[in-house]
Amino acid sequence: MKIGFDAKRALNNSTGLGNHARILLNALLRDFPEHEYLLFSPKAKEQYVEQLHGNFKLFFPETKFQKTLHPLWRSFGIKNQLAQNRIDIYHGLSNEIPFGLRTSDFGHVVTIHDLIFLKHTEQYPFVDRKIYEFKTRYAAKHADKIIAVSNETKNDLMERYGVNERKIVVIYPSVDALFQSEVRSPKSEVIQKYKLPAKYILNVGSFFPRKNQRTLIEAFDLIKNKVEEDLVLVGGVGTTRNEIEALLAQKNLTQRVKIISGISNDELPAVYTAASAFVFPSLFEGFGAPVLEALFSKVPVIATKGGAIEEAGGKNSLYVSPTNAEEIADALLKVLTNETLRKQMQVRGYAHAQTMSDKVFAAKTMRVYEEVTK
Known about the structure:
By secondary structure, this protein is of the alpha/beta class. It has helices spanning about 15-30, 45-50, 65-70, 70-85, 115-120, 125-140, 150-160, 175-180, 185-195, 215-225, 240-250, 270-275, 290-295, 310-315, 325-335, 340-355, 360-374, and strands at about 1-5, 35-40, 55-60, 90, 105-110, 145-150, 170, 200-205, 230-235, 255-260, 275-280, 300-305, 320. Helix content is about 45%, strand content about 15%. Strands 3-2-1-4-5-6-7 form a 7-stranded parallel sheet, with helices on both faces. Strands 10-9-8-11-12-13 form a 6-stranded parallel sheet, with helices on both faces. The longest helix is centred in the middle third of the chain and has 17 residues, at about 125-140. The radius of gyration is 21 Å and the shape is elongated.
């Protein structure tokens, strides 16, 4: 089978959608090497090309006009290159497929991560929201199959766009193979390099309003004198980074809360493994990959109740209202002071994570391709 992919995110993005695409591609390349993999992208950053392991071919816009107006190439001009390479199936990895594809050309599949732009309109500029909605609605209507990353997304597609349930397959994402390997960067080296506390509560996420680090800090402030653990926030730049730093100074928490940026993929699993607990009070997510990373790292998880995050965390994580600092604080005390509970959460959480390994991820996705090409 010749399988084409929209690889823009895989070859250019450091977070979220980029990680999702690279994890899937690497698992497919490893477990199904008999197929041909063709990656189409307007450009590519070398660092992300090097993160893909296996045999694949890269394709870029061919003309100067296409290179200049590459968003139009992804939506329209790419069709000619797909046809010329006689692909059997095309997979849009992030909510969109090219316009004007016909069923007779080749099979087309789209992964739809979420409809957050419809449910939380305040988080998106008007123009961006309209573009996302137009592309996602088109893809949902015209793709042969839709892969939804959660049952919440599946239900949203059925409710908002009237998509037939039989057209949707729920396939949970996985996490980087580094989290699934017993071989990790030595904890001691990573702890020393980033001067991590001896004991800490961990949160991983970019600094944007929906990640809700503010409420987590307020919760930690309530229990700081009751626990040995400090709080570690791992994340890059974002619109609320300065606000969070100001809040820490205001509450005199700069000695108890550490913000770390620039951690490599190789080092991040060790940061998880050394944590006493992982807290993820995000206001909304399409899935919640950091929760799954924590479970693979055998770390107890406290996360937002309801929606896709509970699908990621499973039955043995603790769930809280993300806007209630007292509830988050109580859950933290429960986990940090009850050794029996913590051990139970570690063991059962890790077992839940195994149902979302990258091998399962790749195998279920390949079954969709085979069904569509029949």
